[in-house]
Amino acid sequence: MQDPDAFSPRPDVPWALVLLVVWCAVEGTIFAFALRPTMSELLADLTGVTVNPIALVVVLWFFLTVIIAGSFACIQVLNEAIAARQIGNIVQMVLVQIAVAMFQVLFLYRELVDQITPWLAQGGITLSVGSTLGLAFFAWVGVRGMTWYLFGRTGAPALIAVLNRPAGMHRSL
Fold it and tell me: Where are the domains of the chain?
């Protein structure tokens, strides 16, 4: 039986890698701005000093972009472990993906849902903690699924290959 995905268009690897990196940067930007008020307040409470908002956004952006790109790398490793039927790697990557999903849902996607809560309240909809986390989880699954289907499945192996190349190796122009 043929792969049901065999007829869907697949972008060339370089374009998929560029799209994946750009997507991670865009998602990192969105989350950096969504998390800035919370992180600014938290850091001010912990240190007693008001943090420079621009520096905070830059640090958050870099950190979140790396985490999001790592999430796609984890999905690719899980995909390869399933294809090779490596039970140990499958279990390990499932645990890593659960940890990544929990972090992203609790700290990133929940913040986005919290940002739309006032808008929902105007429509008469109030969200409990469970419904907020549920909506954040479904948003995470939807975004990861969409990006994986569009360019992640082709871009993630290229991203891993770029990260795994030996130090000092570069292409000459």
Answer: 13-161
